[in-house]
Amino acid sequence: MSSTPSLNTWSDALSGWSIGWLPLGLVIVAAIPLVFIALYALTYGVYGERKISAFMQDRLGPMEVGFWGILQTLADILKLLQKEDIVPTLADKFLFVVGPGILFVGSFLAFAVLPFGPAFIGADLNVGLFYAIGIVAIEVVGILAAGWGSNNKWALYGAVRSVAQIVSYEIPASIALLCAAMMAGTLSMQQINVLQSGPGGFLHWFLFTNPIAWLPFLIYFISSLAETNRAPFDIPEAESELVAGYFTEYSGMKFAVIFLAEYGSMFMVSAVLAIAFLGGWNSPLPDLGSLKLNAMTSGPLWGAFWIIMKGFFFIFVQMWLRWTLPRLRVDQLMYLCWKVLTPFALVAFVLTAVWEIYR
Amino acid sequence: MNQLTIPIIFYIFAAVTVLSAAFVVFSKNVIYSAFSLLFTFFGVAALYVFLSADFIAVTQVVVYVGGILVLLLFGVMFTNTIMQTELKADVLNLLPGVLLLVLLIAGMLFSFYTAGGWMPGMDQLHGSVVESIGLETMSRYMLPFEMVSIVLLVALIGAAYLARYDKAHKKEN
């Protein structure tokens, strides 16, 4: 596969653009994922999740504000903006304020290496995949700061649970992604995508070119649920035990920032899953004889469409699971991580290595 | 990109690193020191990026922020009466301390200016750094790599042994 000539053209052109000494292009490159997170969290994240959960429980969901309640989220945001910003008297003021900030920065930093189509990526690092796994560590510190700063035992319990869960599930997740990196032979996000492109559409994806790729794919998906604190691994915010976990004490815009960070990392893990195993921005449609479906649906804009759609599909699966499965207990969670997922991830790792050597 | 942009970004990260490291040392509150370490580690990782060592930069974040800092924070949070602790020694020898500090800094600066200097590598790296790191680890540095892994395994087994619920001991009581 030759690399596409138009690789990264848009972001390269944009980052070179500056007014006088001010590198305005760099700021715009960084702002695009930010605007994307905000828009998607508003529309699909909050409204979509409420509607999906409603339909799964045979309800209608928000119906009052606008046609089919479509303006409900906008009304909620206006409400959140007007709310009084409460900092508990006995809270550690500095950590309480700084916690959501660190949390959001940690979730947002990973978007630097997410390719939004073949022509746009924040930074095409040659350690992109490793960076995307590793930068979650900053989020962990933000969660601890929020939990400790709240000076609330439920918040602290939630933070400690959440951190223990994220740190442990990083291991099966990393080993599963290593399998994909081994299939690609590179850690660069764009190169991983380029290697999965071809006229056969979905036939070139890593999931379908390797007979054992489904195993690391499943392991990464399960671990990514735990890393984003989604059900059935949402014990850090278990409503029946801990009120709301590490963000119990937060209100107003700080609460909104924490939610934005959660939706940001939900999209991030979904996009990484799509990139590592499902071709990223490549079109799933194969060329059928003279009908060039794949060529018709490839290109910078189509690439952005496909990767966002793949990300949204996995977010839908996350929501689906949330309203289907009951929550795990803490010991079951650790059992699943250390005694099920990690050994299977190692098995998948060895099998992938054997397949890559002898195929 | 502008010629001025890279030095400005460098100095911002350098300032973040140095100031947060100073805060770690001078803060009265242990928990603030621990959280301030986040910015120090992050700044050091950014400085690695300026040295074109992107793999080491990400490893820095994974190991130090994700591992060591979290461990440190857990340790601090689970310690009782962490807030009231007076972080001050009873014996305060001002003169020898200052003398030692000045001598140490002077010695370090002297050796840095005389012996220290950037030594550019003989051969240029081509392609991904990760690949050469992997090849070198598996060929020339095989023995140190294996020794480190054995040391870590022994530490892990030791920790598991110490933390294990002792059934035989509990029955006696």
Summarize the model shown.
Chain A is mainly α. Helices cover 65% and strands 0% of the residues of chain A. Chain A has one domain (85-358).
Description of the molecule:
The complex is a heterodimer of chains A (359) and B (173). Chain A has 359 residues and is mainly alpha-helical. Chain A has one domain. Chain A contains 15 helices and no strands. Chain A has helices at 9-15, 24-56, 72-82, 93-109, 128-134, 136-149, 153-184, 189-195, 206-209, 214-227, 239-242, 252-277, 293-296, 300-322, 330-358. In chain A, helix 3 (72-82) crosses helix 12 (252-277). The longest helix of chain A is centred in the first third of the chain and has 33 residues, at 24-56. In chain B, helix 1 packs antiparallel against helix 2 (30-50) and helix 2 runs antiparallel to helix 3 (54-77). Chain B has helices at 5-26, 30-50, 54-77, 94-114, 129-138, 142-163, 167-172. The longest helix of chain B has 24 residues, at 54-77. The N and C termini of chain B lie far apart (72 Å). Chain B has 173 residues and is mostly helical. Chain B has two domains: 1-87, Four Helix Bundle (Hemerythrin (Met), subunit A) (Up-down Bundle), CATH 1.20.120; 129-165. Chain A binds chain B through residues 15-16, 18, 21, 23, 26, 92, 94-95, 98, 102, 125-127, 130-131, 133-138, 140-141, 144-145, 148, 156, 160, 163, 167, 170, 186-188, and chain B through 1-2, 4-5, 31-32, 35, 38, 42, 54-55, 58-59, 61-62, 65-67, 69-70, 73-74, 77, 127-130.
